[in-house]
C-alpha cells in the first residue's frame, strides 16, 4: 500500500479512526492513467464506515489518519484490492489501483454536539434555557467549509423557540446556555441534524453541519418587564401614577446594543400620558413610580412591545431596551403649588387682584434647567395682578404676597404655556418653577374701576370738565382734567396701565352715542349708572 499526502490542512482537530463514518470524493484510475470510476461524475460523495469491511482492504487502511480537506494519492496492490478475480467489465484481474481521495466529512456514531465559544460578553445576566425564544444570525457550513446557508445573506435573523422541537436536535442543544452577544461554533453530527436523507435541498445525507452563531436576542413568553434603576434623586417628593403626563428623554436599543431610536437626536422629549395605553404596554408599566430627574433602564419583552411583527426598524419578536431620563411630570388635576421660603415679620399688606407688583424671579424647568431670570436683566418684572399680563398660574402664585416675601411657585402646563409652550424658550407641556421675591406693591383700585376720587366729588363735575362751557366735552378736555386730578392727588388711576389707554377707555364709556363728544345727559358717575349698563372698566 502506498499513501502520498498531497495536501494537509493547517488545522486538523480530528483524524479518521476505524469505526468512523466518512464522506469523500475520489478519482479511481489504473497505473496508465485510465480512469475506471469517479464520485465527481456521480455528483455525490462516497459515504461509508471505515474499518468495518465495507471497503476494499487497501482503502480501509489508506483512509485512517486523514483530516477533513486532506488530499491523498493512494496506490493499492491487487491483494488489498480486487485480487486475481477483479471486477468483471470494470477491474481486470491482478490490477493495481490508484485513488485520488479528498476527505469531505467525518463523524462517529458516538459523537455529541460540539460547542466552541470564541466570544463571550463580560456581562451575561441571562442564558438561553429550554422554551426561550431567541433571535440569532448564523453561517452554516459543512466540515470542509463549504457554505450552504446564511441568515446574514438574507439580512434577517433566524427567530425560534429553543428546546421544543422547532429546530434540529443538535441546534436545540447547541444554543442552550448562550448569552446575548455571545459567538460560538456549533458542530452537529448528521444523526442530530438531517440524517441519512439530508434536507432534500442544499444539505446532502449523512452530512455534519457547522454553525457559526451570534445570539442577538433572548426572552421567554412568561417574561415581564425588567427595571434597572440607574439614578434616583435623593429628594423624590412625588412618583408618577396612572393618568400622569410625563416628559422624558430616551435611547431605544435592541438587546445587542443596536440603536433604533432616540429622543435626544430629535432634541425633543417624548411627551405622553402614562397608564392610558398611549405607549406600548411595557413602557406604560415601566414609567410608573418614577421621580423627576430619575434615570432608569426598562427592558421590554416583545409581547409587551411591538410583538412578532415589529415596527419600522424594530424587527419582529425583538426585546427592547429603553434608557430613560424623566424631565418632568404632572397630572391634569394639578393646581399651582406654592412654597413660602421667607416671609417678613411685618406682613400685613397682601397682594390682591388689581395691585401693581414689581418682583424678581428665576424661572426653570422641574429638572433645574434655567429658562429666564430678571436678575440677569438687571430689572424687575412689573405687572397688574389678575389682569392677564402673565400666565394664569403666575397670577395665582402671586396672590396674598407681602413685600419682601420669597416663595417658590410650581405651575403645571395647563396653567402655564400649555401644550405648545413658547418656541425656542419654553418646551410644550412643561411644568414651570418660579423662585419669586416681591419688591414693591402699589395697591390697586376696587375691581371694575380704572379711576377713583380720593375725596368728595364736585357736584358740578361736568361743568368743571367742560372748560369752554359749550355743553360738550372732547377727549382732550377730559384727558387734561383727569391728569390734573391725579397730579393734585384728588384722584387716582389704576396702577400699572398706560395713562392714555385708561383715559380713552373712560371717555369711550361716557360717550354713549359714539360721536366723539360727551354731553351732560350722557355723563354719569359709576354709582349713577343703571345696573344693566356696562361697567366703566
TrEMBL record:
<feature type="domain" description="PPIase FKBP-type">
    <location>
        <begin position="131"/>
        <end position="219"/>
    </location>
</feature>
<keyword id="KW-0479">Metal-binding</keyword>
<keyword id="KW-0325">Glycoprotein</keyword>
<keyword id="KW-0256">Endoplasmic reticulum</keyword>
<dbReference type="InterPro" id="IPR002048">
    <property type="entry name" value="EF_hand_dom"/>
</dbReference>
<dbReference type="Pfam" id="PF00254">
    <property type="entry name" value="FKBP_C"/>
</dbReference>
<dbReference type="InterPro" id="IPR018247">
    <property type="entry name" value="EF_Hand_1_Ca_BS"/>
</dbReference>
<dbReference type="InterPro" id="IPR011992">
    <property type="entry name" value="EF-hand-dom_pair"/>
</dbReference>
<dbReference type="InterPro" id="IPR051989">
    <property type="entry name" value="FKBP-like_isomerase"/>
</dbReference>
<keyword id="KW-0732">Signal</keyword>
<keyword id="KW-0677">Repeat</keyword>
<keyword id="KW-0106">Calcium</keyword>
<dbReference type="GO" id="GO:0005509">
    <property type="term" value="F:calcium ion binding"/>
</dbReference>
<keyword id="KW-0697">Rotamase</keyword>
<feature type="domain" description="PPIase FKBP-type">
    <location>
        <begin position="243"/>
        <end position="330"/>
    </location>
</feature>
<feature type="domain" description="PPIase FKBP-type">
    <location>
        <begin position="19"/>
        <end position="107"/>
    </location>
</feature>
<feature type="domain" description="EF-hand">
    <location>
        <begin position="453"/>
        <end position="488"/>
    </location>
</feature>
<dbReference type="Pfam" id="PF13202">
    <property type="entry name" value="EF-hand_5"/>
</dbReference>
<feature type="domain" description="PPIase FKBP-type">
    <location>
        <begin position="354"/>
        <end position="442"/>
    </location>
</feature>
<dbReference type="GO" id="GO:0005783">
    <property type="term" value="C:endoplasmic reticulum"/>
</dbReference>
<dbReference type="InterPro" id="IPR001179">
    <property type="entry name" value="PPIase_FKBP_dom"/>
</dbReference>
<keyword id="KW-0413">Isomerase</keyword>
<dbReference type="InterPro" id="IPR046357">
    <property type="entry name" value="PPIase_dom_sf"/>
</dbReference>
<feature type="domain" description="EF-hand">
    <location>
        <begin position="498"/>
        <end position="533"/>
    </location>
</feature>
<feature type="region of interest" description="Disordered">
    <location>
        <begin position="513"/>
        <end position="537"/>
    </location>
</feature>
<dbReference type="GO" id="GO:0003755">
    <property type="term" value="F:peptidyl-prolyl cis-trans isomerase activity"/>
</dbReference>
<comment type="function">
    <text>PPIases accelerate the folding of proteins during protein synthesis.</text>
</comment>
<protein>
    <recommendedName>
        <fullName>peptidylprolyl isomerase</fullName>
        <ecNumber>5.2.1.8</ecNumber>
    </recommendedName>
</protein>
Amino acid at each position: 500500500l502506498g499513501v502520498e499526502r498531497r495536501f494537509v490542512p493547517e488545522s486538523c482537530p480530528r483524524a479518521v479512526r476505524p469505526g468512523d463514518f466518512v464522506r469523500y470524493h475520489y478519482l479511481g484510475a489504473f497505473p496508465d492513467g485510465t480512469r475506471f470510476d469517479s464520485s465527481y461524475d456521480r455528483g455525490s460523495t462516497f459515504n461509508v464506515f471505515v474499518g468495518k469491511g465495507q471497503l476494499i482492504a487497501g482503502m480501509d487502511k489508506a483512509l485512517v489518519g486523514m483530516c477533513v480537506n486532506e488530499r491523498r494519492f493512494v496506490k493499492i496492490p491487487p491483494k488489498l484490492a480486487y485480487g486475481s478475480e477483479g471486477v468483471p467489465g470494470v477491474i481486470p484481474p491482478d490490477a493495481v489501483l490508484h485513488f485520488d481521495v479528498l476527505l469531505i466529512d467525518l463523524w462517529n456514531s458516538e459523537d455529541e454536539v460540539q460547542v466552541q465559544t470564541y466570544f463571550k460578553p463580560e456581562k451575561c445576566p441571562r442564558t438561553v434555557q429550554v422554551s426561550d425564544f431567541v433571535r440569532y444570525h448564523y453561517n452554516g457550513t459543512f466540515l470542509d467549509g463549504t457554505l450552504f446557508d446564511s441568515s446574514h445573506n438574507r439580512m434577517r435573523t433566524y427567530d425560534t423557540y429553543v428546546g421544543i422541537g422547532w429546530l434540529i436536535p443538535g441546534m436545540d442543544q447547541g444554543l442552550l446556555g448562550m448569552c446575548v452577544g455571545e459567538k460560538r461554533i456549533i458542530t452537529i453530527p448528521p444523526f442530530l441534524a438531517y440524517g441519512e436523507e439530508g434536507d432534500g435541498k442544499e444539505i446532502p445525507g449523512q452530512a455534519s453541519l457547522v454553525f457559526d452563531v451570534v445570539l442577538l436576542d433572548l426572552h421567554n413568553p412568561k417574561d415581564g418587564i425588567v427595571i434597572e434603576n440607574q439614578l434616583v434623586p435623593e429628594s423624590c417628593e412625588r412618583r408618577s401614577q396612572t393618568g400622569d403626563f410625563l416628559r422624558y428623554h430616551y435611547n431605544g436599543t435592541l438587546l445587542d446594543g443596536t440603536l433604533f431610536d432616540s429622543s435626544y437626536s430629535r432634541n425633543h422629549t417624548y411627551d405622553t400620558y402614562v397608564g392610558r395605553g398611549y405607549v406600548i404596554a411595557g413602557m406604560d408599566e415601566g414609567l410608573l413610580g418614577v421621580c423627576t430627574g430619575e434615570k432608569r433602564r426598562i427592558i421590554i419583552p416583545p409581547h409587551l412591545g411591538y410583538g412578532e411583527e415589529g415596527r419600522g426598524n424594530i424587527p419582529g419578536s425583538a426585546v427592547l431596551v429603553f434608557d430613560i431620563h424623566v424631565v418632568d411630570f404632572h397630572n391634569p388635576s394639578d393646581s399651582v403649588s406654592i412654597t413660602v421660603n421667607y416671609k417678613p415679620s411685618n406682613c400685613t399688606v397682601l397682594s390682591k387682584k388689581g395691585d401693581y407688583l414689581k418682583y424678581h424671579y428665576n424661572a426653570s424647568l422641574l429638572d433645574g434647567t434655567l429658562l429666564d431670570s430678571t436678575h440677569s436683566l438687571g430689572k424687575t418684572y412689573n405687572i397688574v395682578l389678575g389682569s392677564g399680563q402673565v400666565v394664569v398660574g403666575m397670577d395665582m402664585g402671586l396672590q396674598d404676597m407681602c413685600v419682601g416675601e420669597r416663595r417658590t411657585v410650581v405651575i403645571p402646563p395647563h396653567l402655564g404655556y400649555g401644550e405648545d409652550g413658547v418656541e425656542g424658550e419654553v418646551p410644550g407641556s412643561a411644568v414651570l418653577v418660579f423662585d419669586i421675591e416681591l419688591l414693591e406693591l402699589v395697591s390697586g383700585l376696587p375691581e371694575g374701576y380704572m379711576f377713583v376720587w380720593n375725596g368728595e366729588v364736585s357736584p358740578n363735575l361736568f361743568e368743571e370738565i367742560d372748560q369752554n362751557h359749550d355743553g360738550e366735552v372732547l377727549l382732550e378736555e377730559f384727558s387734561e382734567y383727569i391728569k390734573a386730578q391725579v397730579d393734585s392727588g384728588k384722584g387716582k388711576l389704576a396702577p400699572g396701565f398706560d395713562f392714555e389707554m385708561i383715559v380713552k377707555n373712560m371717555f369711550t364709556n361716557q360717550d354713549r352715542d359714539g360721536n366723539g363728544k360727551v354731553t351732560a345727559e350722557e355723563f354719569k358717575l359709576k354709582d349713577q349708572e343703571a345696573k344693566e349698563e356696562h361697567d366703566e372698566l
